[in-house]
Design a protein that fits this description.
Length: about 210
């Protein structure tokens, strides 16, 4: 499935997969469908001015191998939103999120991957992520790292964020996190949570 060169100003549609009130997705998966090798590239997403739960990309468990590259993500609400630009959870194979620009203030997470039974290796690299002061909880949130998987977070630039720049909830022994050569501006509060039992390689980051 290849999705490319779209211009979206939609707040998305309600999906039955996530039972959270009012949560919608512009691109989202249905729980009864299986898609392999999903690619979302070179597109523009503005999820509008509503206060609540409008994700640009919301994929749950029905995708093997996901690539999100060369896209721009924003919204026009003046304050915070409890939403994500990209939510890719319970996906298998490989998740690649690279060379995107996020101007996406939120009181939740800009990028969220790896929910519970995640079976994917993850590469998040060369992205620009801009928050809006106290409105961002985490730029990059890895919710779960499986025991034999590698999570690479490399060469990202994160700015204007007072929440956690990276947030990790639960990782199994045998998972590996490579957090390398990322940079953060002077308005970003340097806070990162523990990666659980995962092994962490952390070097060359600048703030």
């Amino acid at each position: 499935v290849n999705i490319t060169n779209i211009y979206s100003t939609s707040a998305g549609l309600k999906t039955a997969i996530d039972t959270s009130a009012n949560r919608t997705g512009v691109i989202y998966s249905e729980s009864t469908k299986t898609n392999k090798n999903v690619s979302i590239t070179d597109s523009y997403f503005n999820t509008g001015s509503s206060v609540y739960c409008h994700d640009a990309i919301m994929l749950y468990g029905t995708v093997t191998n996901l690539t999100v590259t060369g896209n721009y993500f924003t919204h026009t609400y003046a304050g915070a939103t409890i939403t994500e630009a990209v939510q890719a959870t319970e996906i298998y194979g490989q998740i690649t999120i690279d060379n995107n620009e996020f101007e996406f203030p939120t009181s939740n997470f800009v990028i969220m991957v790896g929910n519970y039974s995640n079976g994917a290796n993850v590469s998040i690299s060369n992205n620009t992520i801009a928050g809006k002061g106290s409105y961002t909880t985490a730029g990059i949130y890895v919710r779960y790292g499986s025991s034999d998987k590698t999570i690479n977070i490399i060469h990202n630039y994160i700015s204007n964020m007072t929440g956690n720049i990276m947030d990790f909830k639960s990782s199994k022994a045998g998972s590996t996190y490579n957090i390398l050569f990322n940079s953060f501006d002077s308005k970003t509060s340097y806070k990162i949570t523990n990666a659980g039992s995962g092994a962490v390689n952390y070097e060359g980051n600048y703030y």
